Amino acid sequence: MLLVSYDISNDKLRTRFSKFLEKFGFRIQYSLFQIKNSDRILENIQVKIESYFGKRFQQTDSVMVIELSKSCQITKYGYAKNEDEELIIL
To answer: What is the model's pTM?
Structure first.
């Protein structure tokens, strides 16, 4: 699983980057995405970020890609806690 956080000053590039991430994962917060997929796909995402987007980022932009292993402890509260639970409406 990857967590991708970004702060990109260029509106067009920021929009393009977020649309790229939306193809693979979902937005947790405005500039934070969670991506769960196979190791191969996760690696391809990182390669694309470095090879395509990396050249376009400015010195003031910030992008962090955090790889989480299956043994990582994640504690959730509020809405984040509820999104993993199944909701049954009768």
So the answer is: 0.80
